Amino acid sequence: AKCVISWPGRAANLNGRLIPAATECVQVTVMQNGLPAAPGQLAPRLAPGTSTTLTFTNISPGLVKFVASAYPTTDATGTPLATQTSSTNIIPGQTASVKLTMATTVATVTITPTDTAAVPGSTVTFTAVATDSNGDIVMIAPSTWNWTSSNESIATVIASGVANTATVTALGSGIATITADYLETTPPVIGSTKLNVSVAGIIVTQVAITPTQLEVISGTNAVLTAVAMDASGNVVTTVPGYWAWASSNTSVAIVNGSGINSTAMLTGGNAGASVITATYTENATVVSGTENVTITPNGRGNNTAALDKGLLDFCIAHLGQKVGDGQCSTLVWVAQEAVGARTGFPDYPIPGEYVWGSPVCVIGMHGNTPVITVGNKTELLTAGNIGYIQPGHIMQFQNVVIKYRNGNFWWNEDAQHHTAVVKDILPDQIICNVVEQNAGHLWVTLGKYYLSGMDTGEIRIYQCLPK
Fold this sequence. Notes:
Structural class: mainly beta
Strand content: over 45%
Number of helices: 2
Radius of gyration: 27 Å
Helix content: under 10%
Oligomer: single chain
Low-confidence stretches: 12-16
Strand order of the largest sheet: 28-27-26-33-29-30-31-32
Protein backbone atom coordinates (compact mmCIF):
# COMPACT_ATOMS: atom_id res chain seq x y z
CA ALA A 1 0.00 0.00 0.00
CA LYS A 2 1.22 3.49 -0.82
CA CYS A 3 0.44 6.80 0.81
CA VAL A 4 1.37 9.91 -1.18
CA ILE A 5 1.67 13.24 0.64
CA SER A 6 1.63 16.40 -1.52
CA TRP A 7 3.22 19.28 0.33
CA PRO A 8 1.45 22.67 0.10
CA GLY A 9 2.91 26.08 0.90
CA ARG A 10 2.49 27.80 4.24
CA ALA A 11 0.38 30.72 2.96
CA ALA A 12 -2.15 32.16 5.40
CA ASN A 13 -5.94 32.05 5.39
CA LEU A 14 -6.37 28.72 3.59
CA ASN A 15 -9.55 27.41 5.19
CA GLY A 16 -9.85 23.66 5.33
CA ARG A 17 -6.27 23.01 4.15
CA LEU A 18 -5.21 19.35 3.95
CA ILE A 19 -1.99 19.93 5.92
CA PRO A 20 -1.75 22.69 8.57
CA ALA A 21 0.81 25.45 7.99
CA ALA A 22 2.78 24.65 11.15
CA THR A 23 3.31 21.01 10.15
CA GLU A 24 6.93 19.80 10.19
CA CYS A 25 6.20 16.12 9.65
CA VAL A 26 3.35 13.68 9.03
CA GLN A 27 3.27 10.31 10.77
CA VAL A 28 1.33 7.51 9.07
CA THR A 29 0.43 4.26 10.82
CA VAL A 30 -1.35 1.24 9.29
CA MET A 31 -3.74 -0.63 11.61
CA GLN A 32 -5.46 -3.96 11.09
CA ASN A 33 -7.78 -5.61 13.63
CA GLY A 34 -6.78 -3.00 16.19
CA LEU A 35 -3.03 -3.76 15.88
CA PRO A 36 -0.24 -2.22 13.77
CA ALA A 37 -0.12 -3.98 10.41
CA ALA A 38 3.23 -2.43 9.49
CA PRO A 39 5.79 -0.15 11.16
CA GLY A 40 4.72 3.50 11.24
CA GLN A 41 6.58 5.95 9.01
CA LEU A 42 7.49 9.64 9.24
CA ALA A 43 7.43 12.06 6.34
CA PRO A 44 9.43 15.26 7.02
CA ARG A 45 8.00 18.38 5.41
CA LEU A 46 9.42 19.14 1.98
CA ALA A 47 9.30 22.17 -0.29
CA PRO A 48 5.91 23.29 -1.68
CA GLY A 49 4.90 21.43 -4.82
CA THR A 50 6.89 18.30 -3.98
CA SER A 51 5.58 15.02 -2.59
CA THR A 52 6.55 12.14 -0.33
CA THR A 53 5.56 8.52 -1.02
CA LEU A 54 5.36 6.14 1.92
CA THR A 55 5.27 2.45 0.98
CA PHE A 56 3.94 -0.20 3.34
CA THR A 57 4.65 -3.85 2.51
CA ASN A 58 3.80 -7.31 3.83
CA ILE A 59 0.30 -6.28 4.86
CA SER A 60 -2.19 -9.12 5.17
CA PRO A 61 -5.22 -9.01 2.84
CA GLY A 62 -8.34 -7.44 4.25
CA LEU A 63 -9.55 -4.16 5.65
CA VAL A 64 -6.88 -1.83 7.04
CA LYS A 65 -6.95 1.67 8.51
CA PHE A 66 -4.47 4.40 7.69
CA VAL A 67 -3.99 6.85 10.56
CA ALA A 68 -2.23 10.12 9.67
CA SER A 69 -1.22 12.79 12.16
CA ALA A 70 0.42 16.15 11.42
CA TYR A 71 2.94 17.39 14.02
CA PRO A 72 4.64 20.76 14.60
CA THR A 73 7.95 18.95 15.27
CA THR A 74 10.25 16.90 13.02
CA ASP A 75 10.14 13.84 15.31
CA ALA A 76 6.33 13.58 15.78
CA THR A 77 6.38 14.70 19.39
CA GLY A 78 3.94 17.05 21.06
CA THR A 79 0.22 17.47 20.35
CA PRO A 80 -0.90 16.70 16.78
CA LEU A 81 -2.14 19.63 14.71
CA ALA A 82 -4.54 17.45 12.74
CA THR A 83 -5.45 13.79 12.43
CA GLN A 84 -7.46 11.58 10.13
CA THR A 85 -8.30 7.88 9.77
CA SER A 86 -9.25 6.31 6.44
CA SER A 87 -9.92 2.69 5.53
CA THR A 88 -9.11 0.67 2.41
CA ASN A 89 -9.23 -2.98 1.40
CA ILE A 90 -5.94 -4.79 0.71
CA ILE A 91 -6.22 -7.23 -2.24
CA PRO A 92 -3.33 -9.65 -3.03
CA GLY A 93 -1.26 -8.57 -6.05
CA GLN A 94 -2.71 -5.04 -6.14
CA THR A 95 -1.46 -1.68 -4.89
CA ALA A 96 -3.98 0.07 -2.72
CA SER A 97 -4.24 3.86 -2.62
CA VAL A 98 -5.90 5.90 0.05
CA LYS A 99 -6.77 9.60 0.32
CA LEU A 100 -6.43 11.26 3.69
CA THR A 101 -7.90 14.69 4.47
CA MET A 102 -6.77 15.56 7.96
CA ALA A 103 -9.15 17.32 10.33
CA THR A 104 -7.85 19.81 12.86
CA THR A 105 -7.48 18.79 16.49
CA VAL A 106 -8.13 22.34 17.68
CA ALA A 107 -11.30 22.40 19.79
CA THR A 108 -11.02 25.64 21.75
CA VAL A 109 -9.35 29.03 21.44
CA THR A 110 -8.72 31.01 24.63
CA ILE A 111 -7.51 34.63 24.76
CA THR A 112 -5.61 36.16 27.67
CA PRO A 113 -5.92 38.45 29.47
CA THR A 114 -9.66 37.92 29.80
CA ASP A 115 -12.07 40.85 30.10
CA THR A 116 -9.41 43.45 30.78
CA ALA A 117 -9.42 47.25 30.87
CA ALA A 118 -7.37 50.14 29.51
CA VAL A 119 -7.35 53.92 29.19
CA PRO A 120 -7.32 55.74 25.80
CA GLY A 121 -3.87 55.82 24.22
CA SER A 122 -2.58 52.72 25.98
CA THR A 123 -1.89 49.30 24.46
CA VAL A 124 -2.61 45.76 25.61
CA THR A 125 -0.98 42.58 24.26
CA PHE A 126 -3.38 39.66 23.89
CA THR A 127 -2.34 36.04 23.44
CA ALA A 128 -4.43 33.32 21.79
CA VAL A 129 -3.94 29.69 22.79
CA ALA A 130 -5.40 26.77 20.85
CA THR A 131 -6.15 23.54 22.71
CA ASP A 132 -7.51 20.15 21.72
CA SER A 133 -10.43 18.32 23.32
CA ASN A 134 -8.13 17.09 26.13
CA GLY A 135 -7.00 20.62 26.96
CA ASP A 136 -3.50 20.09 25.50
CA ILE A 137 -1.98 23.10 23.72
CA VAL A 138 -1.79 22.81 19.94
CA MET A 139 1.17 24.69 18.40
CA ILE A 140 -0.10 26.38 15.24
CA ALA A 141 1.41 28.85 12.78
CA PRO A 142 1.08 32.61 13.49
CA SER A 143 -0.13 33.17 9.93
CA THR A 144 -3.28 31.13 10.61
CA TRP A 145 -4.71 33.61 13.15
CA ASN A 146 -7.11 36.39 12.22
CA TRP A 147 -7.54 39.10 14.88
CA THR A 148 -10.43 41.57 14.85
CA SER A 149 -12.03 44.25 17.01
CA SER A 150 -15.80 44.60 17.16
CA ASN A 151 -15.49 48.39 17.29
CA GLU A 152 -12.38 50.05 15.86
CA SER A 153 -13.43 53.45 17.19
CA ILE A 154 -12.88 51.97 20.67
CA ALA A 155 -9.90 49.67 20.02
CA THR A 156 -7.81 48.59 17.03
CA VAL A 157 -5.90 45.32 16.82
CA ILE A 158 -2.71 44.40 14.94
CA ALA A 159 -1.41 40.83 14.87
CA SER A 160 2.29 40.39 15.64
CA GLY A 161 2.76 38.03 12.70
CA VAL A 162 5.51 36.14 14.51
CA ALA A 163 3.54 34.58 17.36
CA ASN A 164 -0.03 33.96 18.46
CA THR A 165 -0.22 37.48 19.88
CA ALA A 166 -1.75 40.80 18.90
CA THR A 167 -1.36 44.38 20.10
CA VAL A 168 -4.58 46.26 20.83
CA THR A 169 -4.59 50.06 21.02
CA ALA A 170 -7.29 51.67 23.16
CA LEU A 171 -8.83 54.72 21.48
CA GLY A 172 -12.23 55.80 22.81
CA SER A 173 -14.50 54.99 25.74
CA GLY A 174 -16.59 51.84 25.51
CA ILE A 175 -16.32 48.06 25.34
CA ALA A 176 -14.85 46.26 22.32
CA THR A 177 -14.81 42.50 21.78
CA ILE A 178 -11.39 41.25 20.66
CA THR A 179 -11.64 38.07 18.61
CA ALA A 180 -9.01 35.59 17.40
CA ASP A 181 -10.08 33.18 14.65
CA TYR A 182 -8.06 30.05 13.86
CA LEU A 183 -8.54 29.88 10.09
CA GLU A 184 -7.42 26.37 9.17
CA THR A 185 -10.87 24.96 9.88
CA THR A 186 -14.27 25.44 8.29
CA PRO A 187 -15.88 27.16 10.12
CA PRO A 188 -13.00 28.76 12.05
CA VAL A 189 -12.49 28.04 15.74
CA ILE A 190 -13.03 31.36 17.54
CA GLY A 191 -12.00 32.81 20.88
CA SER A 192 -12.94 36.21 22.24
CA THR A 193 -12.48 38.54 25.18
CA LYS A 194 -13.57 42.07 26.05
CA LEU A 195 -11.57 45.28 26.46
CA ASN A 196 -13.16 48.07 28.49
CA VAL A 197 -11.72 51.47 27.53
CA SER A 198 -12.41 54.35 29.91
CA VAL A 199 -11.36 57.87 30.80
CA ALA A 200 -8.85 57.91 33.65
CA GLY A 201 -9.32 59.87 36.84
CA ILE A 202 -12.93 58.93 37.67
CA ILE A 203 -13.28 57.40 41.13
CA VAL A 204 -16.20 55.15 41.99
CA THR A 205 -17.44 55.56 45.56
CA GLN A 206 -20.98 54.10 45.40
CA VAL A 207 -22.75 51.12 43.84
CA ALA A 208 -26.49 50.76 43.38
CA ILE A 209 -28.49 47.78 42.12
CA THR A 210 -31.62 48.03 39.99
CA PRO A 211 -34.44 47.20 40.12
CA THR A 212 -34.87 47.97 43.82
CA GLN A 213 -36.90 45.93 46.33
CA LEU A 214 -37.39 43.28 43.66
CA GLU A 215 -40.01 40.54 44.03
CA VAL A 216 -39.47 37.42 41.93
CA ILE A 217 -41.78 34.45 41.56
CA SER A 218 -40.21 31.17 42.62
CA GLY A 219 -38.56 29.42 39.69
CA THR A 220 -38.41 32.48 37.42
CA ASN A 221 -35.51 34.70 36.37
CA ALA A 222 -34.81 38.42 36.58
CA VAL A 223 -31.97 40.57 35.26
CA LEU A 224 -30.14 42.78 37.77
CA THR A 225 -27.99 45.76 36.82
CA ALA A 226 -25.29 47.33 38.96
CA VAL A 227 -24.63 51.07 38.60
CA ALA A 228 -21.32 52.69 39.54
CA MET A 229 -21.43 56.28 40.84
CA ASP A 230 -18.96 58.94 41.91
CA ALA A 231 -19.00 60.87 45.19
CA SER A 232 -21.65 63.27 43.85
CA GLY A 233 -23.98 60.43 42.91
CA ASN A 234 -23.36 60.80 39.18
CA VAL A 235 -23.58 57.56 37.22
CA VAL A 236 -20.19 56.53 35.84
CA THR A 237 -20.36 54.42 32.68
CA THR A 238 -16.75 54.54 31.51
CA VAL A 239 -14.83 52.97 34.39
CA PRO A 240 -12.73 49.88 33.57
CA GLY A 241 -13.54 47.83 36.66
CA TYR A 242 -14.74 44.32 37.38
CA TRP A 243 -18.00 43.13 38.93
CA ALA A 244 -18.73 40.24 41.25
CA TRP A 245 -22.17 39.19 42.51
CA ALA A 246 -23.29 37.25 45.58
CA SER A 247 -26.50 36.17 47.32
CA SER A 248 -26.79 35.96 51.10
CA ASN A 249 -29.14 32.97 50.81
CA THR A 250 -28.56 30.76 47.79
CA SER A 251 -31.49 28.49 48.66
CA VAL A 252 -33.73 31.50 48.06
CA ALA A 253 -31.92 33.30 45.23
CA ILE A 254 -28.99 32.38 42.98
CA VAL A 255 -27.22 35.16 41.12
CA ASN A 256 -24.80 34.63 38.20
CA GLY A 257 -22.61 37.40 36.82
CA SER A 258 -18.98 38.53 36.74
CA GLY A 259 -16.37 40.40 34.72
CA ILE A 260 -16.70 43.81 33.11
CA ASN A 261 -20.40 43.31 32.39
CA SER A 262 -22.45 44.99 35.14
CA THR A 263 -25.51 42.75 34.77
CA ALA A 264 -26.39 39.45 36.41
CA MET A 265 -29.10 36.81 36.12
CA LEU A 266 -31.08 36.09 39.30
CA THR A 267 -33.04 32.85 39.65
CA GLY A 268 -35.69 32.53 42.35
CA GLY A 269 -35.60 29.40 44.50
CA ASN A 270 -37.48 28.78 47.73
CA ALA A 271 -39.82 31.45 49.04
CA GLY A 272 -38.05 33.89 51.32
CA ALA A 273 -35.68 36.88 51.33
CA SER A 274 -32.07 37.37 50.31
CA VAL A 275 -29.61 40.25 50.09
CA ILE A 276 -27.88 40.60 46.72
CA THR A 277 -24.43 42.21 46.70
CA ALA A 278 -22.65 43.67 43.68
CA THR A 279 -18.95 44.42 44.25
CA TYR A 280 -16.96 46.70 41.96
CA THR A 281 -13.15 46.40 41.87
CA GLU A 282 -10.68 48.68 40.10
CA ASN A 283 -7.06 48.32 41.20
CA ALA A 284 -7.16 49.27 44.92
CA THR A 285 -10.76 50.49 44.76
CA VAL A 286 -13.36 48.03 46.08
CA VAL A 287 -16.94 49.28 46.44
CA SER A 288 -20.08 47.23 47.11
CA GLY A 289 -23.78 47.86 46.94
CA THR A 290 -26.67 45.73 48.18
CA GLU A 291 -30.34 45.26 47.40
CA ASN A 292 -33.07 43.15 48.97
CA VAL A 293 -34.93 40.61 46.90
CA THR A 294 -38.01 38.63 47.89
CA ILE A 295 -38.95 35.31 46.34
CA THR A 296 -42.69 34.66 46.44
CA PRO A 297 -44.67 31.46 45.81
CA ASN A 298 -46.40 31.39 42.45
CA GLY A 299 -49.84 31.11 44.08
CA ARG A 300 -50.76 27.73 42.65
CA GLY A 301 -48.80 25.53 45.02
CA ASN A 302 -46.42 24.58 42.22
CA ASN A 303 -43.29 26.29 40.99
CA THR A 304 -42.18 26.90 37.43
CA ALA A 305 -39.95 23.82 37.52
CA ALA A 306 -43.11 21.75 38.06
CA LEU A 307 -44.77 23.58 35.18
CA ASP A 308 -41.78 22.84 32.93
CA LYS A 309 -41.96 19.14 33.86
CA GLY A 310 -45.71 19.04 33.31
CA LEU A 311 -45.36 20.72 29.92
CA LEU A 312 -42.73 18.22 28.79
CA ASP A 313 -44.69 15.24 30.16
CA PHE A 314 -47.79 16.41 28.25
CA CYS A 315 -45.85 16.66 24.99
CA ILE A 316 -44.20 13.24 25.42
CA ALA A 317 -47.57 11.67 26.27
CA HIS A 318 -48.89 12.90 22.90
CA LEU A 319 -46.04 11.53 20.74
CA GLY A 320 -47.48 10.24 17.48
CA GLN A 321 -50.73 12.17 17.99
CA LYS A 322 -52.04 15.31 16.34
CA VAL A 323 -52.69 18.04 18.89
CA GLY A 324 -55.21 20.66 17.76
CA ASP A 325 -54.61 21.76 14.17
CA GLY A 326 -51.19 20.11 14.05
CA GLN A 327 -49.20 23.36 14.16
CA CYS A 328 -46.03 23.64 16.26
CA SER A 329 -47.31 26.54 18.35
CA THR A 330 -50.63 24.79 18.99
CA LEU A 331 -48.86 21.93 20.77
CA VAL A 332 -47.20 24.35 23.19
CA TRP A 333 -50.31 26.47 23.75
CA VAL A 334 -52.49 23.43 24.49
CA ALA A 335 -49.80 21.98 26.78
CA GLN A 336 -49.51 25.24 28.71
CA GLU A 337 -53.25 25.41 29.19
CA ALA A 338 -53.28 21.79 30.39
CA VAL A 339 -50.66 22.34 33.10
CA GLY A 340 -51.93 25.75 34.28
CA ALA A 341 -49.24 27.94 32.74
CA ARG A 342 -49.91 31.51 31.70
CA THR A 343 -50.63 32.15 28.00
CA GLY A 344 -51.48 35.14 25.86
CA PHE A 345 -48.23 37.12 26.06
CA PRO A 346 -47.79 39.91 23.48
CA ASP A 347 -45.50 39.12 20.54
CA TYR A 348 -41.82 40.16 20.78
CA PRO A 349 -39.63 41.52 19.24
CA ILE A 350 -41.87 41.77 16.15
CA PRO A 351 -45.50 40.81 15.44
CA GLY A 352 -45.80 37.07 14.88
CA GLU A 353 -42.88 36.16 17.16
CA TYR A 354 -44.48 34.31 20.05
CA VAL A 355 -43.60 34.80 23.71
CA TRP A 356 -44.20 31.81 26.00
CA GLY A 357 -43.26 33.03 29.48
CA SER A 358 -40.19 34.32 31.30
CA PRO A 359 -37.17 34.91 29.00
CA VAL A 360 -34.23 32.62 29.83
CA CYS A 361 -31.70 33.37 27.10
CA VAL A 362 -31.26 34.01 23.38
CA ILE A 363 -29.04 31.99 21.06
CA GLY A 364 -27.84 34.05 18.10
CA MET A 365 -24.79 34.60 15.91
CA HIS A 366 -21.52 36.52 16.20
CA GLY A 367 -20.18 36.40 12.68
CA ASN A 368 -20.06 32.68 11.89
CA THR A 369 -20.17 31.55 15.51
CA PRO A 370 -23.19 30.81 17.75
CA VAL A 371 -23.39 32.93 20.91
CA ILE A 372 -25.69 32.90 23.94
CA THR A 373 -27.10 36.04 25.56
CA VAL A 374 -28.30 35.97 29.17
CA GLY A 375 -29.53 39.35 30.30
CA ASN A 376 -27.03 41.82 28.82
CA LYS A 377 -24.14 39.37 28.77
CA THR A 378 -23.20 37.68 25.49
CA GLU A 379 -20.59 34.95 25.13
CA LEU A 380 -19.71 32.09 22.79
CA LEU A 381 -22.08 29.14 23.07
CA THR A 382 -20.23 26.32 24.85
CA ALA A 383 -20.86 23.14 26.80
CA GLY A 384 -20.41 25.26 29.94
CA ASN A 385 -23.25 27.72 29.32
CA ILE A 386 -25.77 25.71 27.30
CA GLY A 387 -26.98 24.56 30.73
CA TYR A 388 -29.13 27.70 30.94
CA ILE A 389 -31.52 25.69 28.74
CA GLN A 390 -33.41 23.06 30.72
CA PRO A 391 -35.98 20.33 29.96
CA GLY A 392 -39.45 21.84 29.58
CA HIS A 393 -38.16 25.19 28.34
CA ILE A 394 -39.73 26.46 25.12
CA MET A 395 -37.69 27.32 22.02
CA GLN A 396 -38.98 29.97 19.61
CA PHE A 397 -37.03 29.88 16.33
CA GLN A 398 -36.74 32.88 13.98
CA ASN A 399 -35.06 32.50 10.56
CA VAL A 400 -32.76 29.74 11.86
CA VAL A 401 -30.53 27.62 9.63
CA ILE A 402 -28.41 24.90 11.25
CA LYS A 403 -25.68 23.07 9.32
CA TYR A 404 -24.52 19.68 10.51
CA ARG A 405 -22.60 16.71 9.19
CA ASN A 406 -24.12 13.25 8.81
CA GLY A 407 -21.46 10.81 7.67
CA ASN A 408 -19.87 12.22 4.52
CA PHE A 409 -22.67 14.68 3.84
CA TRP A 410 -23.57 18.15 5.15
CA TRP A 411 -27.21 18.95 5.86
CA ASN A 412 -29.17 22.13 6.45
CA GLU A 413 -31.92 22.23 9.07
CA ASP A 414 -34.30 25.15 8.47
CA ALA A 415 -36.54 26.53 11.20
CA GLN A 416 -37.78 29.83 9.84
CA HIS A 417 -40.69 30.19 12.28
CA HIS A 418 -40.99 27.25 14.65
CA THR A 419 -41.75 26.35 18.26
CA ALA A 420 -40.44 23.32 20.17
CA VAL A 421 -40.16 22.05 23.76
CA VAL A 422 -36.77 21.02 25.16
CA LYS A 423 -36.57 17.32 26.04
CA ASP A 424 -32.93 17.27 27.18
CA ILE A 425 -29.51 18.76 26.47
CA LEU A 426 -26.28 17.02 25.45
CA PRO A 427 -23.74 19.62 26.65
CA ASP A 428 -20.57 17.99 25.29
CA GLN A 429 -22.04 17.98 21.77
CA ILE A 430 -24.08 21.20 22.22
CA ILE A 431 -27.16 19.31 21.02
CA CYS A 432 -30.73 20.07 22.08
CA ASN A 433 -33.25 17.21 21.85
CA VAL A 434 -36.85 18.43 21.56
CA VAL A 435 -40.49 17.42 21.33
CA GLU A 436 -42.20 19.23 18.47
CA GLN A 437 -45.15 19.23 16.08
CA ASN A 438 -45.34 20.12 12.38
CA ALA A 439 -41.70 19.21 11.82
CA GLY A 440 -42.37 17.29 8.63
CA HIS A 441 -45.57 15.74 10.05
CA LEU A 442 -48.77 17.15 11.56
CA TRP A 443 -48.29 15.13 14.72
CA VAL A 444 -45.96 15.18 17.72
CA THR A 445 -42.44 13.85 17.09
CA LEU A 446 -38.97 13.91 18.63
CA GLY A 447 -36.35 16.18 17.08
CA LYS A 448 -32.70 17.15 17.46
CA TYR A 449 -30.93 20.48 16.89
CA TYR A 450 -27.13 20.72 16.58
CA LEU A 451 -26.80 24.22 18.05
CA SER A 452 -23.04 24.31 17.47
CA GLY A 453 -23.80 24.27 13.74
CA MET A 454 -26.19 27.23 13.86
CA ASP A 455 -25.52 29.42 10.81
CA THR A 456 -28.18 32.17 10.83
CA GLY A 457 -31.13 33.47 12.87
CA GLU A 458 -31.89 33.37 16.57
CA ILE A 459 -33.63 31.14 19.10
CA ARG A 460 -35.41 32.67 22.10
CA ILE A 461 -35.73 30.37 25.13
CA TYR A 462 -38.67 30.79 27.52
CA GLN A 463 -39.75 29.27 30.84
CA CYS A 464 -43.39 28.74 31.79
CA LEU A 465 -45.04 31.14 34.25
CA PRO A 466 -48.04 30.26 36.43
CA LYS A 467 -51.38 31.94 35.83
